[in-house]
Amino acid sequence: MTTLGHPPQVGAPDPERKHSPILDHDSFGEDDVPFDFEPETGVGYFNDQAYAIGEYVCSGNELLHCEERGVWVKKGPCHPS
Questions:
Q1: For the chain, what are the domain ranges?
Q2: At 65, phi and psi to the nearest 5?
C-alpha cells in the first residue's frame, strides 16, 4: 500500500479504460490469466492508473491486491476507515 491506513477507493472497473484482470483468490493460477494479458508490465492497472505489485485498492466493497504479473486478486471485503 502506498498510503497509510485504508487502501484508496478506485470505484468500479470502467470498460473504456485500461485495467488488469481481476481474479477470485480461490481460483488464482496460471490458467486464469487471459491469453491477451501482457505479463511483462510489472504493474497492475485499474481505470488507466498503474499500481505497483503488492499494492491494495478498494473497488466498491471489494479489497483487491496487485499480485505477480500485475493481476488483481480479490482478498475479501474493504472495511471503512
A1: 1-81
A2: -120, 130
